[in-house]
Amino acid sequence: MNAYRPDLPELRSDPPPTDPRSRWSRDGEQRSWLGWGVVIAAVLVVIVVFLFMNSEPPQRVAIADLEEQASPMAGEAVSVEGEVEETLSEQALTVREPGNDHSLLVIVTSTTLVQGEAPVADAVDPLAAQADPLGGVGQVDPATEPEPVLPVIPSSGPVRVVGTVGTFDRAALSEELAVTLDEDPFAGWDGSPYLLADRIETDFDPSTIPPDVPLATPAEYE
Question: Is 70 exceeded by the pLDDT of residue 210?
Fold first, then answer.
């Protein structure tokens, strides 16, 4: 049996000393990885900007060509210019080609970007109708998901519209976009070509179009 010996030094298992050079090495590796991450991010940004700047804009097409032969251009992004002829609803307008009677239906969604200033139609804000029972500021019921707010669309003036060509089917498009397109404003438009607008430029000036800029034809899409 071993007796306690107070004269013997107490044995302690302290951890071995840390080499400061190993800590510096780890810090250097972390800084190195951080530096490479910044470089890679910068390169990706440059690539995205380069692709954006060098991407071809949508082809300009005549509304008359779209009205008469839209099938070859179905699903394609195009650009048209004209005068706002009529505002059918807060989600639709027609654009007429100057100098003739050809018109094109344009459908607007919550993601459509409207640029510039122009006389506008009345816009419907789905949240504005939700009144506070106490008469104060309108409040949204957390259990009710609000509908997307539509952009204010122009009611007159020249416009340039960039969007995707399609064949209008009110019932199918209502289901696809999860919106209600009333039947009356769109009477007679089923089966006609339309543009699902990505962008509407209301500050468009027709005189700025160079005379040598050609219009694409349906044959180019076949």
Answer: no
